[in-house]
C-alpha cells in the first residue's frame, strides 16, 4: 500500500487565489512569496445563460480569451517558479500542485436573474482549478511512477471532498485534456477540476437513463452494464480484483475506454486505500497502452464521472477517449456529431479492445 500524505500545504498567489501543494512522503513543500504584479481577481468573470431551446445552461467566460497560449518552455506558467516572479507555482519544486485557475470558466456567486427581455441568466458561480501532475515539463501522466500517480488520485479525492462541501456546488468534475490535437495550449502535464453549480447535461442524461432502468429492471444501470461487459469479454481490456477497463459496446470515439470499480461507489471519496492504490495502477496501465498504439503519444480526454448521495444511481467511472482513428487520421466532430449529437464511429469497439489487450 502506498504511503500518502493527505493534508496539502496551502499558500496564496499574489491576486488572492489558493494554491495547494501535495507531497510524496519525505518531501516538504517550500512555497515562496508570489511577487507578480497581478490585479485582484474579479468575482464576476463569467456568466451562465439558459438556452430555452435545449433546457441547458451555457457558460459565457470571455476573460478566457486572454489565457496563456502556447508559451515557450522557459516561460511555462506551470513549471516551478523559485523566484516568485513568473510561474503560477511559486516554489523551487513540487510533486503535485492544485491552484485556482487565473482564467476560470466559472467564478462568482449569486442567484438567477431575468434579463428583462425574456431570457434567463446567472453569475457563473463555481470553481475552476488547475492540477499539475508533476514539475517535469516534458513528462506525462503515463510517465509517473505508481506512488506519484497515487498522489494525483489523492489530490483529486481531496479536491472532490472539499469542493462538494462548498455551498452551491452540485458536481465536481476532474479531467485532463492531453495533446495539441485536443486543443491543449499548455504542454506541461496537467489537468483541471471544475465545481459546477448545476448538473452537466451528460450527467443529467445518464442519471435519467439510470432512473428509468431502476424502474424497469429494479437494478442499477451501470452495475448491469459492467456485468454484461465482463460476461461478454470481447471488449474487456484488462480486469483486476477491484477494477475493470473496457471499451463500451456503443463507443462513440475511435479509442474509448471506461474504467469501473468492481463494486458500486459514488465517487473517489468512497474508495478505500487499497482500491485507490489499484485504481492508480490500472489507470497508468491504460494510459501506457494508449501511448503504445502508434508511433507518437495518443491525444486523449480523461473524464472522471463522480456523483453524490443525492444521485443514488450514479456509479463512479472514468471515461477515456481519443479523436485519433488511425496512425495518420483524426476523427473530427463534424455536422452529425456537433449539430445533431449523433455520433458515427469509424471503428468497431471490439477491434479497439483487441488492439489494446495486445499492448501489454
UniProtKB/TrEMBL annotation:
Active site: 190
UniProt enzyme class: transferase
Cofactor note: Binds 1 zinc ion per subunit.
PROSITE patterns: GAL_P_UDP_TRANSF_I
Catalytic activity entry: alpha-D-galactose 1-phosphate + UDP-alpha-D-glucose = alpha-D-glucose 1-phosphate + UDP-alpha-D-galactose
Gene Ontology CC: cytoplasm
Pfam families, per database record: GalP_UDP_tr_C, GalP_UDP_transf
Keywords: Carbohydrate metabolism, Galactose metabolism, Metal-binding, Nucleotidyltransferase, Transferase, Zinc
Segments forming domain Galactose-1-phosphate uridyl transferase N-terminal: 44-199
EC number, as in UniProt: 2.7.7.12
Binding site for Zn(2+): 76, 79, 137, 188
Pathway in which this enzyme or protein is active: Carbohydrate metabolism; galactose metabolism
Cofactors, names only: Zn(2+)
Highest taxon of source: Bacteria
Keyword Metal-binding recorded: yes
Gene3D superfamilies (UniProt xref): HIT-like
InterPro entries xref list: GalP_UDPtransf1, GalP_UDPtransf1_His-AS, GalP_Utransf_C, GalP_Utransf_N, HIT-like_sf
Family named by the database record: Belongs to the galactose-1-phosphate uridylyltransferase type 1 family.
Protein name: Galactose-1-phosphate uridylyltransferase
Gene: galT
Amino acid at each position: 500500500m502506498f504511503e500518502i500524505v493527505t493534508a496539502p500545504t496551502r499558500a496564496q498567489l499574489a491576486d488572492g487565489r489558493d494554491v495547494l501543494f501535495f507531497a510524496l512522503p519525505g518531501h516538504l513543500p517550500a512555497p515562496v512569496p508570489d511577487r507578480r504584479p497581478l490585479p485582484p481577481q474579479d468575482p464576476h468573470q463569467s456568466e451562465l445563460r439558459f438556452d430555452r431551446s435545449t433546457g441547458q445552461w451555457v457558460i459565457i467566460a470571455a476573460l478566457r480569451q486572454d489565457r496563456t497560449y502556447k508559451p515557450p518552455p522557459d516561460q511555462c506558467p506551470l513549471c516551478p517558479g523559485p523566484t516568485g516572479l513568473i510561474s503560477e507555482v511559486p516554489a523551487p519544486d513540487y510533486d503535485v500542485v492544485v491552484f485556482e485557475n487565473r482564467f476560470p470558466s466559472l467564478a462568482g456567486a449569486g442567484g438567477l436573474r431575468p434579463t428583462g427581455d425574456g431570457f434567463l441568466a446567472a453569475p457563473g458561480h463555481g470553481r475552476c482549478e488547475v492540477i499539475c501532475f508533476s514539475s517535469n515539463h516534458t513528462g506525462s501522466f503515463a510517465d509517473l511512477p505508481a506512488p506519484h500517480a497515487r498522489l494525483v488520485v489523492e489530490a483529486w479525492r481531496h479536491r472532490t471532498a472539499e469542493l462538494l462541501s462548498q455551498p452551491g456546488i452540485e458536481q465536481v468534475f476532474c479531467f485532463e485534456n492531453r495533446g495539441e490535437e485536443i486543443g491543449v495550449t499548455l504542454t506541461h502535464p496537467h489537468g483541471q477540476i471544475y465545481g459546477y453549480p448545476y448538473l452537466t447535461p451528460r450527467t443529467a442524461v445518464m442519471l435519467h437513463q439510470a432512473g428509468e432502468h431502476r424502474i424497469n429492471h429494479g437494478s442499477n444501470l451501470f452495475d448491469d452494464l459492467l456485468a454484461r461487459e465482463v460476461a461478454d469479454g470481447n471488449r474487456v481490456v484488462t480486469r483486476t480484483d477491484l477494477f475493470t477497463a473496457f471499451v463500451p459496446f456503443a463507443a462513440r470515439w475511435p479509442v474509448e475506454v471506461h474504467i469501473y470499480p468492481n463494486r458500486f461507489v459514488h465517487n473517489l471519496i468512497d474508495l478505500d486505500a487499497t482500491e485507490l492504490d489499484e485504481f492508480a495502477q490500472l489507470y497508468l496501465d491504460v494510459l501506457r497502452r494508449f501511448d503504445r498504439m502508434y508511433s507518437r503519444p495518443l491525444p486523449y480526454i480523461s473524464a472522471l464521472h463522480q456523483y453524490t448521495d443525492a444521485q443514488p444511481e450514479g456509479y463512479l467511472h472514468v471515461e477515456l477517449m481519443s479523436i485519433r482513428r488511425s496512425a495518420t487520421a483524426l476523427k473530427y466532430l463534424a455536422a452529425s456529431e456537433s449539430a445533431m449529437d449523433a455520433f458515427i464511429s469509424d471503428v468497431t469497439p471490439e477491434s479497439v479492445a483487441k488492439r489494446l489487450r495486445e499492448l501489454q
